Write the structure tokens for this entry.
Amino acid sequence: LSNTPVIVESYRKPDMEISVTSQENEYISGDTAHFTIKGATMFGQPLSNIEFSYRILLNTHEEIVDRTKENIDRTISYYGGGEVLTSGGGRFDANGKAEISFQAALPASLESSQTAIIEVTPKIGAAPSIGKMIRLVHRGTFALFIDPLKGDAVGGISGTVTAMDHQSPRRIVG
């Protein structure tokens, strides 16, 4: 007869669902970002008048000309991570809805475009539930691509230059 040790741990599924939507799909550094947050219990009851906290986390994004090959959503991490752009709090209304807005101004220390992840956590005594959404914040109003890139800064660079205008709608220039 043999025996195997077993550890039994408790599990509690999240008590609520948090969803985040935005009015805009992308931002240029300095734009105002607008988000709508909705919270409800797993039984459909709104998180009426419940306070929440939020963080906006930034991660470097490498821009590409062919946007069909871009997969921004894959950069969301369950555990968060990245540089904090801003944080704050709010309160859900009687219907479990809240609106937040903030300046999506990238710090000068960040030289490239960033993905911005919003994390929302209700302040209630239950199993935590975090709503997340990711959006792209461009460093500037356009991007330059050199393809194929040959050479270096000392000896010279050659290749075909393509400019991407980040104004809405995004398009290739020239």
Notes: The chain has a mean pLDDT of 78. The longest strand covers residues 142-152.
